[in-house]
Amino acid sequence: MSRKKSQPVRALPSATIVVIRDADRAPEILLVKRKAGDAYGQSYTFPGGVVDADESNAHRLCDGRTADEANAILRVSHGGLDYYSAAIRELFEETSILLARDPSGNWPKYSTELQELRTKVDRAELAWSDFLQEQGLQIACDALHYFAHWETPLQLPKRWSTRFFVAVAPPGQEARHDGTEVTDSRWLPGAAALACGRDGSMKLPHPTIQTLQQLAGFDSVDTLLEWARSQAREGVVRIRPALRLQDGETRIMMPGDPDYPDNEL
Q1: How far apart are CA 140 and CA 170, in angstroms?
Q2: Half-sphere exposure of residue 186, counting CA atoms within 13 Å on the CB side?
Q3: Cβ-contact 190, 169 below 8 angstroms
Q4: Do the Cβ atoms of 138 and 85 come closer than 8 Å?
Q5: What is the pLDDT of residue 245?
Q6: Are 20 and 168 in contact (CB under 8 A)?
Q7: CB 8 within 8 A of CB 159
Q8: d(CA 84, CA 197)
Q9: CATH fit for domain 12-264, picks 3.90.79.10, 3.40.50.2300, 1.10.540.10, 3.30.2010.10
Q10: 70 touches 81 (CB < 8 A)
Q11: Could you read off the pLDDT of 20-51 as tens digits, one per residue?
Q12: Which of 86, 163, 225, 234 could bond to 51 as cystine, CB 3.0-4.6 Å?
């Protein structure tokens, strides 16, 4: 009797944010090290995480993007602002960088109080939307530029459907990794990060490598952002690698490869 092929696990909606800043030769990119035991544990990735169920509570505190605009950019029927909120919230929880502005358009500065509140938001002791409202802040959705959509291979037991954004680090803020989910953080040009991946000093997952390869060719923040804007204008296509066992090793195949399985497109 033939056995039915098991259905793939649902891919959880997620958001990742690539934070960049100007440097002498090429933009520097913020990478964070995941704690052991997490997805991509001990690897350097970009800040981000799963979209929370209550993300929609922050929609009224989103600035620079309407719900309709976010849906159109991400090409979804609803909930586009959830991804913007999740990206900014996760960045704050993991690195203390807060892409939110006060009514005068100012970015918040570092303070002990803000760091204490960050911990409460991270531990779900303080709702994200309540934190924003109490601080008189609005999420700077227009600071995020959507440029990629990665989905975990169908064969894996844990899966994510992740929207990638890029944003410039706000002035007056520094990355301070939380020490729990994230145990280290580094600012590196894309080419230098890739070199660290090749020599083994940094463990880099496949989507991170692919993204760094895309970004490493830009010599300024402005040219990188213009490229990201063009990606959104042209329409971001989902990338879902496939896994195949070949000669005892797992091989990653990308859409467009000659032997990428048609039934996984």
Answers
A1: 11
A2: 17
A3: no
A4: no
A5: 77
A6: yes
A7: yes
A8: 29
A9: 3.90.79.10
A10: yes
A11: 999 988 999 999 999 887 777 889 999 999 99
A12: 86
At residue 67, φ and ψ (nearest 5 deg) are -60, -40
Burial of 199 (0-12, 13-18, 19+ CB in 10 A): exposed
pTM recorded for the entire structure: 0.93
Residue range 182-213, pLDDT digits in tens = 999 999 999 999 999 999 999 999 999 999 99
Specify the amino acid at residue 115: Q
Q: What is the DSSP letter of 247?
A: T
167 three-class SS = strand
- Pair 26, 216: CB distance under 8 Å: yes
* Paired tokens of 189: 């040009």
The half-sphere exposure of 166 on its side-chain side, counting CA atoms within 13 A, is: 23
- Grouping H, G, I as helix, E, B as strand and the rest as coil, residue 153 is coil
